[in-house]
Amino acid sequence: FGQHLRRAVNALLRIRQRKADLRRDLSAQGMDDDEIKHRIRQDIFLPAQTFKQAISQQPIDMEQIPQEPIYMEALNTLRPVFDAYDRGYNFGEQGLLYSALVLLKKGY
Known about the structure:
Blueprint: H1 3-12, H2 15-28, H3 33-55, H4 69-83, H5 96-105
Helix pairs in contact: 2-3
């Protein structure tokens, strides 16, 4: 999964903002730091990781995509990028050079 695509996904999923918001809310409720870390992992990091794994291969397995609106919006935003790649392409195994060559070859 290319580093640049990972950054784009993190931005679309607003990982930092959601983490800060959840930390603030749970802290205000008096939750201890270990429990806050657990909830952040459970509510934000694990679903984001599942999303990244699901979109790393073409075709995307829609059953693996978390169904919350933020994930569906991110998927819809990224759809033109995924459509530029051949079916069966794996973002996890291919390098950015290969990706750039594919896009150049297709005229993007």
